Amino acid sequence: MDSMLLCPGKGLVLPTPNVDRISQRINFLLIALPNNEMSNKSPFAVHKALIGIGGEPKSVKRLSSGDLLIVINSAIQTKSFLLAKTFLNSHLIVIPHKSLNSCRGVISELDLLSTPEAKILDGFFDQGVIQVRRITIRKKNTNIPTKHLILTFNNPKLPSTIKAGYLNCKIRPYIPNPLRCFKCQRFGHSQTSCRGQLTCSRCASAGHSSTDCTLEPKCINCSQSHASDSKLCPKWKIEKQIQEIKTNKNISYSEASKLIVSQISETYAQVTEPIPISTVLKQIQI
What we know:
Blueprint: E1 5-6, E2 12-13, H1 16-23, E3 28-32, H2 43-54, E4 59-62, E5 68-71, H3 75-83, E6 86-87, E7 90-91, E8 93-96, E9 103-108, H4 117-124, E10 129-139, E11 142-153, E12 161-164, E13 167-170, E14 172-173, H5 234-249, H6 253-272, H7 277-285
Antiparallel strand pairs: 1-2, 3-5, 3-8, 4-5, 6-7, 9-11, 9-14, 10-11, 12-13
Helix pairs in contact: 1-3, 5-6
């Protein structure tokens, strides 16, 4: 696996022989300055400095953290940014984006059921796989392994097949379940970053967990009569659609969420829009 070290204040330090290999598979970079100095820089100066390093990027976006997310045009441009050390008279920090430069897929092979995950990773490593996780199902308090394997690739483009020895395994995109906080029961964040209050997943009341709760089920997200962890929840189904769009289009959660909201708004407008009388008359004539 390619080794990469981040030296605070000095940018991304890469072993020289690996820069070319890494640049071939990175399309998204995070660019930051120490002490969030990027927020104080002029957009005009920032744009000019970016072009000076590696030419015009495909796109540039400022994140809520103050860092810049840039989309790269070519491997040569990626290499230029990775090797850059200064930016507007400040030390530059350049990091490949953690998730946008990789992707996950699922294979289902009975012939690999008895093979340990570490052995499978060894066999797939030369094909760009950097992580293997077997999907398990829980029955009677026991985790039962399945034939389904989640593969993480070091490339944002998912291959259609992968070779497991003599087997040619078909790969399908991995669509994760919506991220729901086990503390406040809301979607979009985890318990570790939650700022909300403890909420029961069964009754939606604050101040207690669902362990011994006997109250009537109520969902905190949609107010319907089911538990907050139910997959029947309409909010859960929307969040699942967001994950599908996020995965298939390789975009961020917030971008996928905006697309879903836009689709829902258009659908609602079509449902509530009155049908023109001319359309009704044409349908009658037909």
